[in-house]
Specification:
This protein has 10 helices and 8 strands. With 334 residues, it is an alpha/beta fold.
């Protein structure tokens, strides 16, 4: 992974010193969270500019809902929805991502000024997608995907969701590399909510370090999704509407940023923009604090002393061996 502040950098995109914020513009009448609000081109462009003003680093434009059971729009209609918005935002200097599973839409969007292709199928829905992106030299998001969200694909079956998602993403990344997209232009996405239950999504969020092991920057797209509704509702309650899950989304954004995500994809930007900046400030304070400690340790080693081990005891007087009660090691890897 091409590292930048520990979370990776994507060639062809700006380098951010923190987790980036990807705002969402759905140019659709049937999105699960805000369908119809930005269906008009002028309204969609205006909304994208508002997201940037609120702190979005890039804007993801999509013309097709991927909610469970959604009917696919035809190619001409997707082009009609997406291209004018991509062109309008790019002309204003916005870094634009296009959210599409069609190679033709990706190709026309890149020509209109898009900088990134975000394909929820990772190139599986359209065999022409990988060659188009490779020929353009564009960055590409590879999401974990098990098919369109209809029938049995709505609910995924997993024995070990983290291991299976990592393995399936690895296989997909290898196929993308074989198709000519270079490693420094690949982003991976665990596909929260796609063929996954709430417990699967939460488990994946708890183990983002395992996804980092794939060696590519990580995009986390949790915004307003069903698993957040389940968490907020509790065991007996009804999930709140999608637009009432933004505070929960910002909480996930902070956690993802702390875990080293390259970017988070959200509908409501302001709270998440604040969250990732706070996470970056804490990260900076931790780094600043550890630098003098490391320097003292190097000096102590040079003089033959080990910090914190006076009289055979640790700096706080603790004498627990690693893994014994009283230490985090007793609890395993979590």
């Amino acid at each position: 992974m091409n590292n930048h502040s520990g979370r990776g950098r994507v060639t062809g995109l700006p380098a951010w010193d923190r987790c980036a914020v990807m705002g969402v513009v759905n140019v659709t009448p049937d999105s699960f969270s805000d369908g119809g609000r930005w269906f008009d081109t002028t309204a969609a462009v205006k909304h994208g500019l508002e997201l940037v003003a609120e702190g979005a680093d890039l804007v993801d434009v999509g013309g097709e809902s991927t909610r469970p059971g959604a009917t696919r729009v035809d190619e001409d209609e997707e082009v009609r929805r997406v291209i004018p918005v991509v062109r309008g935002l790019a002309s204003e200097g916005v870094v634009v991502s296009v959210d599409t599973m069609r190679a033709s839409v990706a190709e026309r969007s890149l020509a209109a000024g898009a900088a990134l292709v975000n394909d929820v199928s990772g190139g599986l829905a359209d065999p022409a997608m990988i060659p188009v992106v490779a020929d353009a030299g564009a960055p590409f998001v590879v999401m974990h995907w098990r098919g369109f969200l209809q029938g049995q694909n709505v609910k995924g079956a997993y024995e070990d969701v983290v291991a299976e998602v990592v393995d399936e993403l690895h296989a997909r990344v290898e196929a993308v590399l074989a198709g000519g997209i270079t490693p420094d232009r690949i982003v991976v996405d665990p596909g929260l909510g796609f063929s996954k239950e709430a417990e699967h999504d939460l488990t994946l969020l708890a183990h983002l370090d395992r996804l980092h092991a794939l060696g590519h920057p990580l995009l986390v797209a949790a915004s307003r999704k069903r698993f957040l509704g389940r968490v907020l509702a509790g065991p007996e309650g009804a999930p709140p509407p999608a637009r009432e899950r933004d505070a929960a989304t910002a909480a996930v954004s902070a956690l993802a940023a702390q875990a080293g995500a390259w970017a988070v994809r959200v509908h409501e930007v302001r709270a998440t923009a604040d969250a990732v900046r706070v996470a970056r400030a804490v990260e900076g304070a931790r780094t600043a604090e550890s630098a003098p400690d490391a320097e003292r340790e190097r000096g102590a080693r040079a003089s033959g002393n080990t910090p914190g081990m006076e009289s055979g005891r640790g700096a706080h007087g603790a004498q627990h061996a690693p893994g014994t009660p009283g230490k985090r090691g007793a609890e395993g890897d979590r």
